[in-house]
Design a protein that fits this description.
The structure holds two protein chains of two kinds.
Chain A (H helix, E strand, L loop, with lengths): L4 E5 L9 H5 L4 E3 L5 E3 L10 H10 L5 E5 L1
Chain B lengths: L24 H5 L2 H10 L2 E4 L5 E4 L2 H9 L4 E2 L27 H8 L5 H22 L4 E3 H6 L1 H11 L6 H13 L5 H24 L5 H7 L10 H32 L1 H9 L4 H11 L5 E5 L3 E3 L2 E3 L4 E4 L1 H4 L34 H18 L3 E3 L6 E2 L7 E3 L1 E4 L4
Parallel strand pairs in B: 2-8
Antiparallel strand pairs in B: 1-2, 3-5, 4-12, 5-8, 6-7, 9-12, 10-11
Classes of the chains: A alpha+beta, B alpha+beta.
The complex binds iron/sulfur cluster.
């Protein structure tokens, strides 16, 4: 069975570049200042794994962690 | 006028590694090979010019400096021949250091979220089409003078609630502050005064009759003690929004169209695959990043093994970082669908550009509308492309022939 992925935004590192939201709107939300957090508990629905990795590799602040469970 | 308005000429550069000058015509024209040469030599290079200045050449060195707000201050953000006295509230939050930075920045963030920009998008689309209407029948155009410049001028004027028709004034101040003042500090003072006088009338009008524009927003804002912002803060932020909102995006749109004019394959691909646009815009931002901010060294430290000393400035070159092949394979090529692109065009760390969502939206819309109406265009061999000097890099003259080549 494929592993489940989970995304997490480190709020101390995030500077609101909004790249994650643009690339994976299903996985990230922005607050009123434009800073990001993961949707729900960050569990990545099947089929969106690629988007999770894409968001991680495009965040200029290296603020996104993707973990495999 | 006194002869103080005549900028001192700088001697030409013969040694880029130890005596660089970002105002040298070679650099202004084509900086990329210069950065490559510097990067191959050292992650940080130094010049005695500008009263002493470092330039980090790698992504890693730029990242380290951007994140070290203790050793590097933002109180001076432009590298100049002189160091004018630091004014309080010069242009918060871009000129603010912690702990003042965060409250000043948080104030400006809500009007610039991606959702807020979505609401502005139809207006920007209309602006682009109005502009194109004016020259499309001519068969040729200076796209910098008649298109790329006006998109951000009109958009930010719209947001601030000031007349879009005052654009020529804004452009003049920007030229004085970002280019002429590098070699003539009087230009800075004069432009700042003129801008404050200009805004004073609009601020007074908004105090009487508030609207839903950014001036009214700043007048309504409260600081962390629940007090209205000091006047100097309001004027400083207005100056910042006007200056930062125009030159940068004007340059980014211009460089993108310049690239597409001379690269038909990329142009055709963007037209055939419009869904590529958001990612392509990021790549164009990486390859032709317009903005180089500065920092002042205030504490002795080491960057990528290189010691840096207080009293010097730093040319924090996000554009050079974005061309670092250790971070971006084929860094010197434009790869429209580049998948991994952590580019630093909007800065890194706490000073991330407040207007980045606005800039992205304007770029995307301006390129989309242009390609829809003008799918074929190329550089006019009878004209000359010219580039701005200094803090922001972009084409200031962009002669195109429109339509298929005969
Ligand atoms: S891309 Fe990174 S810095 Fe930008 S909003 Fe997302 S997590 Fe934050």
């Amino acid at each position: 069975m494929a592993e489940r992925l989970r995304v997490h935004v480190d709020p101390d590192k995030c500077q609101g570049h909004a790249r994650c939201k643009a690339l994976a709107p299903e996985l990230f939300e922005l607050d009123e200042y434009g800073n990001a957090h993961e949707v729900g508990d960050g569990t990545v629905p099947t089929g969106l794994e690629d988007k999770a990795w894409l968001a991680k590799s495009n965040c200029p602040e290296i603020a996104i962690e993707v973990t495999e469970e | 006028m006194s002869d103080v308005s005549q900028p001192a000429a700088h001697p030409p550069v013969t040694d880029w590694l130890h005596d660089f000058d970002h105002t040298d015509p070679h650099w202004t024209e084509d900086p990329f090979p210069i950065w490559d040469q510097m990067r191959a030599a050292s992650p940080v290079v130094h010049t005695e010019r500008f009263l002493g200045c470092y330039l980090p050449t790698t992504y890693e060195a730029v990242r380290q400096i951007a994140n070290d707000t203790e050793s590097f201050s933002s109180r001076r953000i432009i590298v100049r021949d002189e160091r004018p006295e630091v004014a309080k509230n010069a242009a918060p939050p871009i000129t603010s250091d912690p702990p003042d930075h965060k409250p000043a920045k948080q104030l400006l963030l809500p009007p610039f979220t991606p959702d807020a920009m979505k609401k502005l998008e139809p207006r920007v689309r209309a602006i682009c089409n109005e502009l194109i209407d004016e020259f499309i029948a001519d068969g040729k155009v200076d796209a910098a003078a008649r298109y790329t410049k006006h998109v951000p001028v009109r958009a930010i004027a719209h947001m601030l609630g000031i007349p879009e028709s005052d654009g020529d004034l804004f452009i003049k101040w920007i030229h004085m502050i970002l280019e002429l003042s590098i070699k003539n500090e009087m230009m800075l003072k004069q432009a700042a005064e003129e801008m404050t006088n200009y805004f004073a009338g609009h601020v007074e009008a908004r105090r009487k009759t508030p609207g839903d524009d950014l001036i009214s927003y700043l007048l309504n804002a409260r600081d962390k003690n629940g007090q209205p912002l000091e006047d100097s803060h309001i004027y400083g932020s207005l100056r910042l929004l006007l200056i930062a909102g125009i030159d940068t995006t004007w340059s980014a749109i211009g460089s993108s169209l310049w690239h597409l004019a001379k690269t038909p394959a990329d142009r055709e691909r963007l037209i055939a695959e419009p869904e590529l646009m958001p990612i392509a815009v990021e790549e164009l931002l990486r390859a032709y990043s317009p903005v180089t901010m500065a920092r002042e060294v205030v504490k002795e430290t080491t960057i990528s093994g290189c010691p840096v000393k207080p009293g010097n400035m730093v040319l924090l070159s996000f554009p050079a970082a974005n061309r670092d092949p250790r971070m971006f394979p084929d860094a010197d090529k434009v790869v429209l669908d580049r998948r991994e692109n952590r580019h630093a065009a909007f800065g890194l760390g706490i000073h991330r550009c407040v207007g980045s969502n606005l800039a992205r939206m304007e770029m995307q819309v301006a390129i989309e509308e242009w390609l829809k109406r003008i799918p074929d265009f190329r550089l006019d061999p009878a004209g000359t492309v010219t580039w701005s000097q200094g803090t922001v890099r972009g084409p200031r003259q962009l002669p195109f022939l429109l339509g298929k080549a005969m």
